[in-house]
Design goal:
Elements lengths: L1 H10 L51 E15 L11 E19 L4 E13 L4 H11 L15 E6 L2 E6 L3 E4 L2 E8 L8 E11 L14 E10 L8 E11 L13 E12 L4 E10 L8 H4 L2 E11 L4 E10 L8 E9 L2
């Protein structure tokens, strides 16, 4: 169904366009990350693009604009109890998150680039609970504990030993944490099938931790990406994988419960249906960010993204995708996103 939508969209966009300024290298990844309310504030990096590594215009400044919707309806109690026999942790996440990101990449040369990303985050009660429950019913997916609460509410509630640590029950929005990254690709010859890239990132606390638009801390990450193109056996297939480490800082929201380090990774596969249409599948994983006995905060995060890209013109490409949690409770059970990329 998704492939049919992409092909239909591409048929409306006019003539076929060749790969623009990338020597056949297109973006394999989807701009997704875990949008759990208390995870997304730490700026887990999305899988990087390696298309910049062979650009014929090293002074170009590609732009991207993405809009992501994440819906969650989760609640649990930890199994651990204190001396009085009371539950140590209680957590409820019920609401929707809209995250809009504006990104720009400045190529410093044929093998390095700087990227900057500024998000705008909105937490809302939303109105998509019913369609999502119908989606789960059609495909036989679990609804979790959605039937335990009224639809289309906003409540983020986290208590530890009876002490309120996080409470958000009114719609709110604001600028998120600013991220800056440097990317460097190992030089390769023109016909190379494998590319290797290093990325180092820093996140600055420009958001508001009270509104859950930021963590209140400066964090940093480093990751390594390996990608393959132009396979002789599967010429339409390409892919890449990323492994990295995130330092979460030592200040900000829930600093006493937050771990110092977390690991993350992703694997992406893209299959070219035509010269302008590509379908994609991506798996994103990360270790737990908090010392918690709840599944929402103390478990690893994992989600699967399915989508595709359509080249709209020489300079514009659009992504359309959705996500489902494969590790229940630690990631939103449903997400939807669209992204527009401009390459000069």
């Amino acid at each position: 169904m998704l492939a049919a939508m992409l092909i239909g969209l591409s048929s409306l966009c006019g003539p076929v366009y060749a790969e623009h300024a990338t020597n056949g290298i297109s973006q394999v990844t989807l701009p997704v990350s875990n949008r759990n309310p208390l995870v997304q504030i730490h700026g887990l990096p999305v899988a990087p693009t390696l298309a910049f590594t062979q650009t014929s215009k090293p002074n170009g400044s590609p732009l991207s604009l993405s809009l992501n919707l994440a819906n969650y309806s989760l609640s649990s109690q930890s199994s651990a109890q204190n001396a009085e026999g009371n539950t140590v942790e209680n957590i409820t996440f019920d609401g929707e998150l809209f995250r809009t990101e504006l990104g720009i990449m400045l190529a410093l040369g044929p093998h390095s680039a700087l990227s900057a990303t500024l998000p705008y985050i909105a937490h809302h009660s939303g109105n998509s609970d019913q369609p999502i429950e119908q989606w789960h019913s059609i495909f036989g997916l679990p609804n979790g504990n959605r039937d335990q609460r009224a639809q289309d509410l906003l409540l983020y509630d986290y208590q530890v030993n009876g002490v309120q640590r996080v409470l958000l029950e009114r719609n709110t929005s604001g600028v998120g944490d600013f991220q800056l990254a440097w990317l460097y690709a190992l030089p390769t010859h023109k016909e190379a099938k494998w590319l290797h890239s290093l990325r180092m990132s820093i996140k600055l606390p420009t958001g508001d931790e009270a509104r859950l638009t930021g963590s209140g801390a400066t964090s940093a990450s480093v990751d390594w990406t390996v990608g393959q193109w132009n396979s002789e056996r599967w010429p339409r297939l390409s892919g890449q994988t990323t492994l990295g480490a995130l330092w979460l800082g030592n200040t900000g929201l829930l600093k006493d419960l937050r771990k110092d380090w977390a690991g993350y990774g992703s694997g992406s596969i893209a299959y070219r249906l035509g010269q302008r249409t590509t379908i994609k599948c991506q798996l994103d994983l990360h270790s737990s960010l908090y010392r918690s006995a709840t599944d929402e905060l103390g478990n690893v995060g994992g989600q699967l993204a399915l989508g595709g890209s359509v080249q709209l013109s020489h300079r514009f490409t659009a992504d359309l995708y959705f996500t489902e949690d494969i590790v229940t409770s630690s990631s939103p059970d449903f997400g939807l996103g669209v992204a527009l990329h401009y390459r000069p």
